[in-house]
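User: Can you recover a sequence for this backbone? Please restate the input before giving your answer.

Assistant: Of course. Working from this structure:
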């Protein structure tokens, strides 16, 4: 169906304008009735964040998303244009998306007066009606609201007080759409003041020149709680004008976190790399442990980007091993997670105690804790008695991260009860999945080490809790096939 091309055709088609907030509200109601997914790709917010956003939109509120880094705030913002109409009519050439029946700019008013029903109409798609700006200290009032343009005045023969000399900023250009401002507290106070009239009275002033622009805009902000509450950088009058405060959070369930990481991480390398489910769980539990660790600054948070980059690094390490050994599929092991420590240390803001211990030491302890927590979800610690007894009686085992799956399983087979414990858990079948079996055996040993049942030395050997100077029993030493 052809869209009306002139004002006369638009009137004949029965067009009736509506505000952007009414538009979003009605489209949201239609989506709720049809059961459509409101925010595709957003996991874990169905019972917490999404209802708050829905309430804010139904109430026609401007709102703020308040949350730590890596909590999908920007992703939520970029999903909101789906609540807009597919396209809306605007006066052709208008910088502020003037409604043909209710123009707000001098340009549109003069053109409609001159051309009447023959005024050409353009159609603006929903994506063009979304404007997002990252607030930084160098943002000016001209960037957001606008400024007088002397060059435009000279070319058009206008005086500077003429509205036609104005170069509009991002906010007026978002008229009849969504204006999203990321990290609001970083916006200078005088710029925040410039948002007052837009939010309450619906007009703006440019360079002290009063311009009546009753903008029709859905305003959405984001902020970090540390900036929003502790440093108080959102000025009170602006805070008072924000209708709803929606609080985001990190995944509350490991399964949700695994879904997010699986969705976002680049793990399909075009070669055979297998990621066992328990390894995915270990990686997610690193972030969960970090968010509870007193050595990590909780005010800064631990972004969900951390497990995403960890799993990508771990896959890369497994891929590198596969390229060396030509063993495919290359199964991601716990040792590959340790190799991904640079993806952990770079994303942790440490407290004073953590700074004293160092980022790498903290990362190692977090991986160990994650292994122990994952072990508890899949094994019974008492069933590991024969393994602990093996090391208590002098057994030792040294693991080479570059060893093949078959060689690792052979070595793990020397530890009483280790491979049978893995087989009994149903995690892997030694005969058909040696790589997964090897990875699971690594998990068991790392978990027992984290629980202080056995010891892992600096050289990578697993030994009794209080190792003797000379390992006894049938363990693998540095001169064995598993030796590094």
């Amino acid at each position: 169906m052809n869209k009306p091309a002139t004002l006369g055709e638009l009137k004949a088609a029965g067009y009736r304008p509506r505000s952007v907030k009414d538009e979003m509200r009605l489209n949201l109601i239609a989506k709720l009735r049809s059961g459509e997914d409101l925010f595709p790709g957003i996991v874990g917010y169905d019972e917490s964040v999404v209802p708050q956003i829905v309430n804010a939109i139904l109430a026609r509120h401007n709102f703020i998303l308040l949350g730590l880094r890596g909590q999908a705030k920007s992703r939520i913002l970029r999903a909101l244009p789906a609540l807009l109409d597919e396209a809306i009519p605007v006066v052709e050439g208008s910088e502020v998306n003037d409604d043909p029946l209710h123009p707000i700019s001098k340009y549109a008013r003069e053109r409609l007066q001159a051309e009447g029903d023959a005024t050409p109409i353009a159609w603006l798609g929903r994506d063009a009606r979304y404007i997002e700006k990252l607030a930084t200290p160098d943002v000016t009032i001209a960037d957001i609201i606008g400024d007088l343009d002397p060059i435009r005045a000279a070319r058009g023969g206008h005086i500077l007080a003429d509205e036609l000399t104005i170069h509009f900023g991002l906010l007026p250009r978002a008229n009849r759409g969504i204006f999203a401002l990321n990290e609001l507290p970083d916006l200078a106070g005088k710029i925040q003041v410039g948002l007052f009239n837009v939010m309450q009275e619906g007009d703006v002033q440019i360079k002290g020149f009063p311009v009546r622009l009753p903008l029709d805009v859905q305003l959405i902000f984001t902020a970090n709680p540390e900036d929003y509450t502790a440093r108080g950088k959102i000025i009170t009058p602006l805070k008072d004008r924000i209708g709803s405060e929606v609080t985001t959070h990190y995944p509350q369930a490991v399964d949700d976190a695994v879904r997010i990481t699986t969705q976002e991480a680049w793990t399909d390398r075009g070669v055979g790399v297998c990621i066992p489910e328990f390894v995915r769980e270990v990686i997610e539990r690193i972030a969960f442990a970090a968010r509870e660790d007193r050595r990590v600054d909780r005010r800064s948070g631990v972004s969900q980007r951390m497990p995403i980059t960890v799993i990508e690094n771990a896959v890369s390490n497994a891929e590198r091993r596969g390229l060396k050994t030509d063993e495919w599929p290359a199964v991601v092991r716990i040792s590959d997670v340790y190799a991904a420590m640079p993806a952990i240390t770079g994303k942790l803001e440490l407290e004073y105690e953590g700074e004293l211990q160092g980022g790498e030491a903290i990362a190692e302890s977090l991986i160990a804790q994650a292994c122990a927590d994952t072990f508890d979800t899949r094994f019974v610690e008492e069933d590991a008695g024969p393994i602990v007894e093996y090391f208590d009686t002098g057994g030792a085992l040294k693991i080479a991260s570059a060893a093949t799956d078959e060689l690792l399983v052979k070595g793990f087979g020397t530890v009483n009860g280790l491979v049978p414990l893995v087989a009994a858990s149903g995690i892997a079948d030694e005969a058909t999945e040696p790589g997964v079996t090897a990875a699971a055996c690594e998990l068991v040993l790392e978990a027992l080490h984290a629980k202080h049942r056995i010891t892992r030395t600096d050289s990578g050997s697993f030994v009794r809790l209080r190792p003797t100077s000379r390992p006894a029993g049938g363990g693998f030493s540095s001169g064995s096939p598993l030796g590094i």
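That completes the design. The first strand starts at residue 63 and ends at 66.
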